[in-house]
UniProtKB/TrEMBL annotation:
Residues 115-551 form the TRAP C4-dicarboxylate transport system permease DctM subunit domain. The keyword Transmembrane applies. The chain crosses the membrane at residues 20-40, 46-62, 74-91, 97-119, 126-151, 171-194, 260-285, 297-316, 345-362, 368-386, 407-426, 446-472, 533-552, 559-579, 591-621. Signal peptide: none annotated. InterPro entries: DctM, TRAP_DctM-Dct_fused. Keywords: Membrane, Transmembrane, Transmembrane helix. The lineage of its organism: Bacteria, Thermotogati, Synergistota, Synergistia, Synergistales. This is TRAP transporter, 4TM/12TM fusion protein. Pfam families: DctM.
Length: 636
């Protein structure tokens, strides 16, 4: 959006300048205030909400016609209300803690105005889904007495509701906002700094150097690069745009159909959200919610992540053999001596080592995130100053901080709205009512209860990023499933996986649509291919709630057995979709390979053995049939 690498900014308009410097201010505030200023929690969150929502209101205009190069009257009014409302909270923090529910008329009016602005800014950023849900819950809180049966609620006063949303350490300034104001912001800024330091290009070069010499090299490079970049970037769409612009044209040039090339990139980029160490911030949030070490969360996520990418990689391999494609031309594969330099690797390796090291010795995520960002800034200066000089390096750093602020502006209104939603779920008591419905279903079938529970994260995930979808799903659905006996870690990962899948599945499939645009393919067919490649992600979550050994929650032998059978199951499922099967009963063979792969995931050893027998048996039969057909063809 902004280019500070030039000697000057070319005649910026007022609005662009305000957005740029406000974005820089937001990044600087998030890097310094939580660490160096000893503020009360509400004061820190008020600064975060004030800067973040102000920037988001400017970045996302009210309507298309307001996308002008000047500040409109509406922009100015919104900024005044946002600033006034958050300054009010900052000043009255002690009063809020000591006398909850004591808002006067001015406080209530500022609270209503700020709530409306936050919800509308969220609408501008990601659409109507969250604002409608929040508005519906507010309506339910105020007029619950008109609802029938178990849904009837004694209506709460508007004074109580606004106090809870605005004039309290809940609602706007609740626990989700607290995470947004601390470690989430730091790691989003880290992602922007990493991109500015050339991280995306380095990931792609590493991927091509690792896989380019093999058949299907560009597709396999897309998998590796997207997994690495997606773990840190946190956005599947951004991941597709960055890595896909390199990998998709290469895949097409070497013979992959456009719809398949786009699907490979879409699936690989989506998987970044479940790839350790960062998992698009979800790992940190899991650690906070569960009170479990961040390093343990990484350990729990490894087997599902490996099985996900095993399925994708196997699908690519089988499709490559089916099409008879060649590797990447040798002269187009980056040489390791060009990649393995301090300049290329320092900003990738050293900050991650610092992050993991600080967490390993027990430092808080906020502290670890700060030193991760600080080390990245220092390394960027060390790398840039000798080549570009001090002034250009400073300008590049300021531009990187601005991009970090813009990235925050995209997520802050969403998370603050989710914080309001979580509060409304609490004060209306709607979660226990939904839980009772799921409990009644789960008494007959736990798996059926899980299937019903996928609807919320899947539908929300079609229009929202992973983190808010995950938090919403947890707040509404987790209590009942935990009472039914679900393992807490497995359940959190279950919701993270299902929060991702809306980005792959038609009709929304945002990642697939972006990838299809780059590949110049059909978005619907790209989405269907994405579902086939990522089929493990649709099936595996049920099995690791059913059998937590899949997420490392069991004895070493149980975990090993699950890892091995899951690995074989992922390969056979991929073969069922993409293997070259030369037979008149092609679909029948594919169905048995897929069924065998699914049976290998079952927790009972008997089912796994049956699955292995079915898959291997039909593989032998398929090869014999194929050989017979080839012999008949050659003799004819």
């Amino acid at each position: 959006m902004f280019d500070m690498t030039k000697d000057r900014i070319d005649a910026p308009d007022v609005k662009t300048s305000v957005i740029f410097w406000l974005a820089v201010a937001l990044s600087v505030a998030q890097l310094t205030v939580p660490i160096f200023f000893h503020l009360l929690d509400l004061q820190l969150r008020a600064i975060h909400v004030g800067l973040g929502i102000s920037l988001a209101a400017l970045v996302f205009p009210f309507k298309k016609k307001y996308e002008t190069n000047r500040l409109t009257t509406l922009d100015i009014l919104e900024l005044l209300f946002i600033i006034a409302a958050n300054v009010n909270i900052y000043i009255k923090t002690l009063n809020i803690y000591m006398y909850p529910g004591s808002a006067d008329m001015l406080d209530l009016l500022l609270g209503i105005a700020l709530t409306v602005i936050i919800l509308d800014t969220t609408r501008r950023a990601v659409g109507w889904a969250i604002p409608i849900i929040v508005a519906g819950l507010i309506f339910y809180a105020l007029f619950g007495d008109i609802f029938p049966g178990m849904w009837k609620l004694r209506g709460l006063s508007w004074n109580f509701v606004v106090n809870s949303i605005y004039f309290s350490p809940l609602g706007i300034y609740g626990s989700v906002t607290a995470m947004s104001a601390t470690f989430i912001s730091l790691f989003i800024i880290f992602g922007a700094l990493l991109s500015a330091g050339g991280g995306g290009k380095t990931f792609i070069d590493i991927a091509f150097a690792l896989t380019g010499k093999w058949k299907g090299g560009p597709a396999k490079a897309a998998i590796v690069a997207s997994a690495l970049f997606g773990s840190i970037s946190g956005s599947g769409v951004a991941n597709v745009a960055v890595t896909g612009s390199y990998t998709i044209p290469m895949m097409k040039r070497l013979g992959y159909p456009p719809n398949f090339a786009g699907a490979v990139e879409a699936v690989a980029s989506t998987g970044g959200g479940i790839t350790p160490p960062i998992m698009s911030i979800a790992a940190f949030m899991m650690s906070e919610f569960l009170g479990i070490s961040y390093l343990k969360i990484i350990g729990y996520a490894i087997i599902p992540c490996v099985l996900y990418y095993t399925s994708v990689y196997a699908g690519v391999q089988f499709m490559t053999l089916r099409l008879g494609l060649a590797p990447v031309p040798e002269d187009e594969i980056p040489e390791w001596k060009e990649i393995l330099t301090f300049r290329r690797l320092s900003c990738l390796v050293i900050p991650i080592v610092i992050l993991l090291g600080l967490v390993a010795v027990g430092r808080p995520l906020l502290t670890a995130g700060f030193y991760t960002c600080l080390s990245t800034i220092i390394l960027m200066f060390i790398n840039e100053i000798p080549e570009s000089g001090l002034m250009k390096s400073i300008k590049k750093m300021i531009a990187a901080l601005a991009e970090g602020g813009i990235s925050l502006a995209r997520i802050v209104p969403i998370l603050v709205s989710v914080s309001i939603l979580v509060n409304m779920v609490g004060i209306t008591g709607i979660a226990p009512k939904i839980s009772s419905l799921i409990m009644s279903v789960g008494q007959d079938s736990f798996i059926f209860a899980l299937i019903i529970s996928t609807f919320v994260p899947f539908i929300l995930g079609t229009s929202l990023p992973v983190v808010p979808t995950y938090v919403l799903s947890l707040s509404i659905l987790a209590p009942s499933l935990l009472r039914l006996g679900a393992d807490a870690v497995a359940l959190h990962l279950f919701f993270i996986y299902w929060s991702l899948l809306g980005g792959l599945t038609p009709p929304t499939c945002t990642q697939a649509i972006v990838a299809a645009g780059i590949a110049k393919g059909d978005w619907f067919k790209t989405g269907i291919n994405s579902v086939k490649l990522g089929i493990v992600a649709f099936i595996m979550p049920f099995f690791f709630v059913w059998n937590p050994a899949f997420v490392g929650r069991g004895t070493p032998m149980q975990i090993l057995i699950c890892a091995v059978t899951g690995f074989l199951g992922a390969i056979f499922m991929a073969y069922g979709f993409f293997g070259h099967i030369n037979s008149k009963v092609n679909l029948l063979f594919r169905a048995f390979f897929f069924a065998g792969g699914v049976l290998l995931l079952f927790p009972h050893h008997l089912y796994s053995m049956i699955g292995l027998a079915v898959a291997v048996g039909f593989l032998i039969i398929e090869k014999m049939v194929s050989k017979k057909i080839d012999l008949e063809g050659s003799s004819a």
